Amino acid sequence: MDQSKKSEFVVVANRLPVDRVTDEDGEATWRRSPGGLVTAIVPVMQRREGAWVGWQGSPDEDLEPFEAEGMTLSPVRLSGSDVELYYEGFSNATLWPLYHDVIARPVYRRSLWEAYERVNRRFAEAAADVAAEGAVVWVQDYQLQLVPKMLRELRPDLRIGFFLHIPFPPMELFQQLPWRREILEGLLGADLVGFQSRDGASNFVRLSRRFCDLKTQGHEVILDDRTVQADHFPISVDAQELITLSTQEDVKARAAEIREELGNPASILLGVDRLDYTKGIQQRLQAFTELFEDGRVKSGDAVFVQVATPSRERVEEYRILRDEIELQVGRANGMYAELGAPIINYMHTSHTRKELTALYLAADVMVVTPLRDGMNLVAKEYVACHGDLKGALLLSEFAGAANELHRAFLVNPYDIGGTKQRMYEAMHASPAERARRMRSMRRRVIEHDVDLWAKEFLEALENRR
Ligand code: ADQ
Q: What does the entry list under GO cellular component (predicted)?
């Protein structure tokens, strides 16, 4: 690549931050993908003439680097078999369940590992190709844990940061992984390894000591010629954008319309998730249904709206989960719904930001009950939207967000009885109590927004050498 086109700041992620859209004339263009990570990083990219290295989302397609939304995008090609083995396989059938408390059984298969190595090398080579001398490279997430080491071997001049968006497991679980040492060595190629929580960072330091025979000091792992810093940087949302959206008249009107369409019950409870077995969707629906079974709640008192975005539908576990949830919803409505008034409204679709914001505004209780979650942005989005100080958040202790949102109604989702009780309390909390809790949570989310997250990570990375 021509030196003048090289970038001082490079992000490497499994996906490029754009989606292909086809307009009315059949012309394909690129549109920035929604989401906090992209929003937070784009301004940094624009200031520093950044480049983003990633897959464009469809297999077997060769694309030249292109410009979109003020960024240089460098596509990495994935074949159909790469998608199956590296992405659906090692990333989502091995690492994802292992890193989420083995809620589902991880698949350990050598062919998947080999694909993971091969594809990680391709990403590392692509990053090495676009980075200017001494550039800062920021690698994202569990799909690319080998990239830091591979990239350092190719380009020792770079400053490399890595951020893991999901939990990093404790010794007892990580130990299962047949390639545990290779993964740790991959991450140790970075100058700074960031996690969502303090626990993730300390698990990483302990594991490096145990499985790579390295000395550690506090948050640092000591190698022969340098040290690697591990720290926590809890990710957040673009709070200002959500405040703006949630105070728009049309969004508020839509929220009122949603309440009307649901028959104006005393309580609207809401769940918004990717359809994933880590999110505890079944546990929350069971707790809700049991309130009817116990006679504590009656049709007309409360309605649950569950929005579940289709996700990873080619991975077996996800297909099974979808069927189970649909069965559960059908049973609950069969037992307790009245004509034209289901107790659970289930939608297996994605929503626009606007519609999602209207749903957040309409909901009296936001129900976020993951069995394990790196952070959970939905919880923070709900809080950011409730400038009216109405609304209550029911939040799992197992979400990273619980480390910050202490004033949520906290639950252990494995404890259905306890979850049911807290859900009932959240539904019946007084306006004054809701306001007190919401005010405290909003302070945290507004001060610690996604811009601050990116800034703190990048400053820590700049300070590394
Ligand atoms: P996810 O597991 O995808 O993220 P989450 O943090 O909740 O989980 O983010 C989901 C995002 O998708 C939110 O911004 C939400 O608004 C949006 N979304 C969900 N359902 C939707 C729907 N039906 N329609 C439209 N949008 C929808 C991973 C980790 C998390 C971590 C994030 C960021 O698993 O723990 O918080 O990365 O680091």
A: cytosol
Residue type at 229?
A: Q
Six-digit token string for 373: 């979650």
Instruction: State the closest ligand 1 atom to the C-alpha of 400, by its place in the atom list counted from 1.
Output: 35
Residue reference for tokens 């499994």: 14
Instruction: Report the distance separating Cα 254 and Cα 252, nearest Å.
Output: 5
Which residue reads 């100080």 in tokens?
389
Judgement on whether residues 207 and 262 belong to the same structural domain of the protein: no
One domain for residues 192 and 86: yes
Indicate left, alpha or beta for 201 from its phi (over 0: left) and psi (-120 to 50: alpha).
Answer: alpha
CA–centroid distance, 298 to ligand 1, in Å, is 31
Query: Where does ligand 1 bind, in terms of residues with CB under 6 Å?
Result: 35, 165-166, 235, 272-274, 307, 309, 350-351, 356, 373-378, 381
Just list the catalytic residues: 165, 373
Selection from 328, 382, 384 nearest residue 360 by Cα: 382
Same domain, 255 and 285: yes
Q: Report the separation in Å between the CA atom of 376 and the middle of ligand 1, taken as the mean of its atom positions.
A: 6
Q: Which atom of ligand 1 is nearest to the CA of 311?
A: 3
Same domain for 212 and 243, yes or no, is: no
Alpha helices in 213-298 (DSSP H): 239-246, 249-261, 281-293
Q: Which ligand 1 atom sits closest to the C-alpha of 196?
A: 38
Q: How far away, in angstroms, is 143 Cα from ligand 1 center? A: 17
Instruction: Name the DSSP class of 94.
Output: I
Domain of residue 386, CATH code = 3.40.50.2000
Q: Are residues 46 and 82 in the same domain?
A: yes
**By residue range, what is the domain housing residue 11?**
3-235+451-462
Q: Which residue has the tokens 């409730």?
A: 386
Shared domain for 338 and 414, answered yes or no, is yes
- Residue 264 burial (C-beta neighbours within 10 Å; 0-12, 13-18, 19+): exposed
Listed residue (130, 132, 139, 185) closest to 160, CA to CA: 139
Q: What is the ipTM of this complex?
A: 0.99
Q: 203 near 170, Cβ under 8 Å?
A: yes
* Tokens 């970075």 -> residue: 190
Residues 213 and 271 in one domain: no
Q: For the chain, list residues with pLDDT below 50.
A: none
Q: What is the pLDDT of residues 184-211, one digit of tens each?
A: 999 999 999 999 999 999 999 999 999 9
- Output Rg (C-alpha) for the chain, integer angstroms: 23
